[in-house]
Write a structure and sequence with these properties.
13% strand, 420 residues, globular, Aspartate Aminotransferase, domain 2, 7-stranded mixed beta sheet
């Protein structure tokens, strides 16, 4: 007989107060050890904590670039700084439009607006929450200059379709790879398709320094602009060029660089562990009636930053709110939607066009265009927020944890399908 659901008074599948899930918030879900400590000791003993005088940041840049087959890498202070550096290097005009995803972190959009450009949001494919290429085409205007794609949850966008749009319209392409370290499309690394690939090293990412980021590119001219933009437009090449533009100070310190270097050298083993457990979980979910694993394109190599699943309400015999309540009561680590549960452009900052002071700049005329951000324009996003559940994933998860999750999902499925 099926065990009674916790939501109806039965015992939880997982009592997280007794046995919590591994988390990215502490060492239970992070791979730190002697490698990081050894490099940090080297920095402290050298007395050179700034990248201008040390070697750790430069070595991190070299190894990260080599790992991706890129000519250049520029280490910065955060993933947001990476995107802002890429945008700054493009030197777009005030009011130019940049298309991006409505399912993303504020960092993606900050980079656009802080370069005085207007963000335009295309819709996403509902099951993957990745940018829909046709929706991108529909948003292109005579002011569109760039596309910032977001490789979400660890899965790459459909780069066949995205590159077709780029080539058709002659746009710059920035890849937001913050959540997708080591993900690939048709065997090619994310971050290497566009003019820039931007990565985050924030606490939750596959490799982390707490906060940090890095930009890669094969374009010599754009690399030069990125290096100078992130360092107040100072010239560190020895040519002594004076600052001819206004840049930022996004330099990475040697202490952060030391951790970044150690983490980069562990990325293969970190992602091997993530993939082993993630793929076991997805395979197990596929066998549970009424519950569907994440939709992954055959050409995609997933980086598994987060897990995703959906349900077939008719087969399961329960609707989305009921399923949410049941898995929460069972102590399972899934929540509905992503980000804030709505398209990011519905936040007050975008609804009120609030970037600088009390005006509408850069949306206001004669600079830009007052783009309307309406909830009904994002049907794919809205469906995903209501019908896709995600869970944070990390290298601390074990196959025993996977078994616990599957046991809980089977329990939920058996309870409702038996009553259908």
């Amino acid at each position: 007989m099926t065990e009674e659901l916790a939501v109806n008074g039965g015992p939880k599948t997982r009592d997280t107060s007794v046995k919590p899930w591994p988390t990215i918030a502490n060492a239970s879900g992070r791979d730190f050890g002697e490698q990081e400590m050894e490099l940090l000791r080297e920095v402290m003993e050298s007395g050179s904590l700034g990248y201008m005088y040390g070697s750790m940041v430069k070595q991190f840049e070299a190894e990260f670039a080599a790992r991706h087959g890129a000519k250049h890498a520029c280490a910065v202070s955060s993933g947001t700084a990476a995107l802002h550096t890429a945008m700054g290097a493009l030197q777009l005009e005030v009011g130019d439009e940049v298309i991006t995803s409505p399912v993303t972190d504020m960092g993606s959009v900050i980079a656009i607006v802080q370069c005085n450009c207007v963000p335009v949001f295309a819709d996403v494919e509902p099951e993957t929450m990745l940018l829909d290429a046709q929706s991108v085409r529909e948003r292109i205007t005579d002011r569109t200059r760039a596309l910032m794609i977001v490789h979400l949850l660890g899965q790459p966008c459909n780069m066949d379709e995205i590159m077709a749009v780029i080539e058709e319209h002659g746009l710059y392409l920035i890849e937001d790879c913050a959540q997708s370290h080591d993900a690939k499309w048709d065997g090619k690394d994310v971050g290497t398709f566009g003019h820039f690939g931007c990565f985050s090293l924030q606490q939750s990412k596959q490799i982390t320094t707490g906060d940090g980021g890095i930009v890669i590119t094969d374009d010599d001219g754009l690399a030069d602009e990125a290096y100078r933009f992130h360092d107040k437009y100072y010239d560190r090449s020895g040519q002594n060029r004076p600052p001819e533009r206004i840049g930022m100070n996004y330099r990475m310190s040697e202490l952060v660089g030391a951790v970044a270097l150690a983490q980069t050298r562990k990325l293969d083993r970190i992602n091997t562990r993530r993939r082993e457990t993630a793929e076991a979980l997805m395979a197990g979910i596929a066998a549970i009636p009424g519950i569907n694993p994440a939709t992954v394109h055959p050409k995609a190599t997933h980086g598994w930053w987060r897990m995703a699943l959906s349900i077939d309400e008719e087969e399961l015999g329960a609707d989305a709110p009921t399923f949410s309540q049941a898995i929460s009561a069972e102590g399972l680590p899934f929540g509905r939607g992503a980000a804030r549960g709505e398209p990011i452009c519905m936040l007050p900052a975008f609804q009120d066009y609030a970037a600088y002071g009390t005006g509408d700049f850069p949306w206001e005329r004669p600079y830009g265009r007052r783009v309307e951000y309406r909830l009904e324009d994002y049907p794919g996003t809205n469906w995903a927020m209501a019908n896709v559940w995600t869970a944070s994933w990390n290298e601390g998860y074990t196959l025993d944890d996977v078994d616990d999750i599957l046991r809980g999902l089977r329990k939920v499925s058996e309870w409702y399908t038996a009553r259908g």
